[in-house]
Design brief:
By secondary structure, the protein is of the alpha/beta class. The protein has 23 helices and eleven strands. Strands 3, 4, 5, 6, 7, 8, 9, 10 and 11 form a nine-stranded mixed β-sheet that branches. A hairpin with a 2-residue loop joins β1 and β2. α5 runs parallel beside α8.
Length: 576
């Protein structure tokens, strides 16, 4: 028992390590949550994607503020408190990154708690040590859930729903008021999950139906009414909040003007159009079954399939069938089947299967053969290394480098050779060069989109050093060459001798200086964007390792040391 507790603590440490690692799974983990919340809370420059178009938004602001806004509000309050105490601590992108990721670690503990409590509530004598370890050691929980995906938020909400469902099943013969209270909160949770991600109902439908069945069996009509009322009132509150946020409706003196924003409906309509999905990628119907499920769950998915018949026989042989287990099995199955009918499929869409898979297979965790645990450890270690440590891990450190060196309120500068170049550093104290403005234009090529909020650059600010990020992830090589050829080129000789962390920029207009940076992985042949006959060259300013782009896995395997970096290069004139 003592060693199992020790292993659980070690696995929690691994969860924290995965959370603070800069590994980057998909742009949605930033641009569907932290990017929006950070822009609103700190009034900084961010990139609002098409999903937040005010006329037809497909993402509700309420779950975003709940899951990603909460840690940022806490961070803002802490910095304000420090300011009151005389400590001036500016908010940085790194602080926002850690605040969101560590909050996700705390949020994922709800899955551990809810899954174990749901099972132990129905089976008081259940031995769940193996289940706890299996859940805590899952790379799906350690890696995917600690990233700020809407799917991760939906998964946490689904685990809460199973906890509440088991409470309804356990309290079916107890006081009606307790049953009504639990039913109310289940309705709220089901609605919140639906507005969190459009796929949530595909997993939660069995939970809602079986909850109604249990309430009907207990003749708790009050509980059924509370379930519906909790869901309806939560939906009304979220729709009102979205309508106010996106400014499509105004509420003055109890009167409503304008139109209500129904983000779930907008999302369904968008995803019902195959043409829209084609812009994100079309996959075969079996992609979730043969790719997504093995990537997320590995041996656990095999265990669920192998023990499916045993699970069915167990249910048939027992007179006291636990409906929560049935709901868990149906939830995992319905989510997989219904999402497989959608042409656009990505592994993270199945993240909410985590809790139901563990719940419906819990009986077999203690009796699986030793080789299962060996395969389980190897599988999760590989996914942890790939997606939790290596994948696109240089993007956020590169943005942090740009933020620290190119986004500055005040600068002190001196002119270089020829008087058209300037080299600047952050100014100490109150000293500043009021007439100077320096802009760093950053082109990111063959790397994931750079989260703008990590620059921590105030909106409409008068800061002297600012940065502009342009994503070129899907741009042709020739277009990249054209952009770089027409950009500002500093002197290569001065770039090679400039002080570390300084800004070497070239004058473009009176009082305004500019430089061009290129962010590119070392796995990419630099000659693709910097040909030998071009009018520009590059000088490396910064690099981060390890950074692995799985699209270039062939080059990485051939040169694992040289090809696993993300580089920040300054574009320069080789003739100067």
């Amino acid at each position: 028992m003592r060693y199992r507790k020790l292993w659980y603590i070690i696995l929690l440490a691994a969860r924290i390590l995965a959370a603070v690692s800069p590994a980057y799974i998909h742009p949605d983990e930033y641009f569907q949550g932290p990017e929006i919340a950070a822009g609103d809370i700190f009034q900084i420059d961010v990139l609002r994607t098409w999903e937040f178009t005010p006329t037809s938004p497909v993402r509700s602001i309420v779950p975003i503020y709940l899951f990603t806004g909460t840690p940022l509000v806490v961070l803002k309050l802490l910095t304000a408190l420090c300011a009151q105490l005389g400590w001036s601590i500016p908010v940085t992108g790194k602080q926002m990154f850690y605040a969101n990721r560590l909050f996700m670690v705390l949020a994922t503990l709800l899955i551990d708690i809810c899954v174990v409590r749901a099972i132990s509530r129905l089976y008081p004598k259940a031995q769940l040590q193996a289940t706890r370890l299996l859940l805590a050691s899952s790379s799906c929980l350690i890696v995917f859930h600690t990233h700020t995906f809407a799917n991760s938020f939906a998964s946490i909400t689904l685990a809460i729903c199973f906890d509440l469902l088991s409470a309804i099943e356990a309290k079916a013969q107890t006081a009606a008021c307790k049953l009504a209270c639990v039913s109310w909160w289940l309705g709220v949770a089901l609605t919140l999950g639906t507005f969190t991600h459009v796929s949530f109902p595909m997993f939660a439908l069995p939970v809602g139906l079986i909850a109604l069945l249990l309430l009907a069996r207990a003749k708790s009509y009050k509980g059924a009414v509370c379930l519906a009322a909790g869901g309806l009132l939560a939906a009304i509150a979220i729709v009102i909040a979205d309508s106010v946020y996106f400014q499509t409706a105004k509420f003055v003196n109890g009167k409503v003007s304008g139109t209500l924003t129904l983000t779930v409906l907008n999302n369904v309509l968008y995803n019902s159009d195959r043409g829209n999905l084609a812009t994100h990628g079309i996959h075969p119907w079996y992609n979730h079954l043969v790719v997504s499920t093995p990537v997320l769950f590995g041996p656990l998915a095999v265990l669920a399939i192998a023990r499916l018949w045993s699970f069915i026989k167990t249910l048939r042989s027992q007179t006291d069938v636990k409906c929560t287990l049935i709901a868990a099995g149906l939830s995992a199955g319905s989510g997989l089947v219904l999402l497989s009918m959608v042409p656009h499929q990505e592994p993270r869409f199945l993240v909410p299967m985590m809790a139901p898979l563990v719940i419906c297979t819990w009986r077999f965790h203690r009796v699986v053969p030793a080789y299962f645990w060996k395969l389980w450890v190897l599988f999760n270690a590989a996914i942890f290394a790939g997606y939790g440590v290596l994948h696109q891990a240089g993007v956020t450190p590169a943005v942090d480098f740009v933020s620290q060196t190119s986004v500055l309120p005040r600068i002190t500068c001196h002119f270089g050779t020829g008087n058209d170049h300037i080299e600047c550093m952050a100014a100490n104290g109150n000293y500043t060069e009021h007439r100077l403005q320096v802009t760093s234009k950053v082109f990111a090529f063959a790397a994931f989109m750079a989260p703008r909020h990590l620059l921590a650059q105030p909106t409409h600010s008068e800061w002297q050093a600012q940065a502009e990020i342009h994503d070129l992830i899907s741009v042709e090589d020739s277009s990249v060459q054209e952009k770089l050829s027409q950009s500002v080129h500093v002197s290569c000789k001065q770039a090679q001798t400039a002080a570390s962390g300084s800004i070497l920029a070239k004058q473009t207009t009176s009082g305004h200086f500019e430089r061009t940076l290129l962010v590119v992985p070392s796995s990419l042949d630099i000659r693709r964007v910097v040909p030998a006959d071009s009018n520009y060259s590059v000088v490396e300013l910064y690099s981060y390792a390890p950074h692995v782009n799985f699209d270039h896995i062939g080059e990485i395997l051939l040169h694992p040391i040289q090809r696993t970096k993300l580089r920040v290069l300054v574009i320069c004139d080789p003739s100067r």
